[in-house]
Amino acid sequence: MHIAQMNVGTTLHDLDDPRMAGFVGQLDDINALADAADGFVWRLQSEEGSAVDIKATDDPRFIVNLSVWRDVNALFAYVYRSGHRAVMVRRRSWFRKPEGPFQVLWWIGEGHVPTVEEGLDRLARLTRNGPSPAAFSFKNVYPPETGSPHDMKPEPHCVGWS
Predict the structure, then answer these.
(1) CATH code: domain of residue 147
(2) Rounded Cα–Cα distance for residues 40 and 63 (Å)
(3) Is the pLDDT reported for residue 81 higher than 70?
(4) Which residue range forms the structural domain that includes residue 99?
(5) Other CB atoms within 10 A of residue 28 CB
């Protein structure tokens, strides 16, 4: 089993707005960091190499990030213990504060490539029903087999929304 993750956000400005330059200017480096990270398997990307070009809804400022990792520990290390964290510190400069869950995790079979629709469905499930084996967060990680969830304690690492 592998872990899939989707996170979504609505930018405060169009991506070509100068106020978004700090975010857009880091995309290639952050994507390269993910690609080289231990445990990285796959990420959604357009022909240009980024997922920000892929429109999941009619809202041009709504962007998605979808990726697959060997396990939840590798994903956690990338999100909270790599250079990716520095981008999260500044996210309120570029993104509207979410009103509900903006990230969802779920287990997939090795070789499965999740779709944007699948990720949005999992995020909607998490929003609607709370954490479950089908849709969860780092706060309630369900094992790939049956069992009780555990808390990876992401709070000390979650920066940028205070």
Answers:
(1) 3.30.70.100
(2) 21
(3) yes
(4) 2-157
(5) 12
